[in-house]
Amino acid sequence: MTGRGPFLVVLLSLAAAACTRCNDSWEGFAQQFFTRKCVRCHGAMADPARVARDRAVILGMLASKRMPPLHPRTGLLQALPQETVSPEERERIERYLSCGAPGTR
Question: What is the total count of domains within the chain?
Answer without folding.
Answer: 1
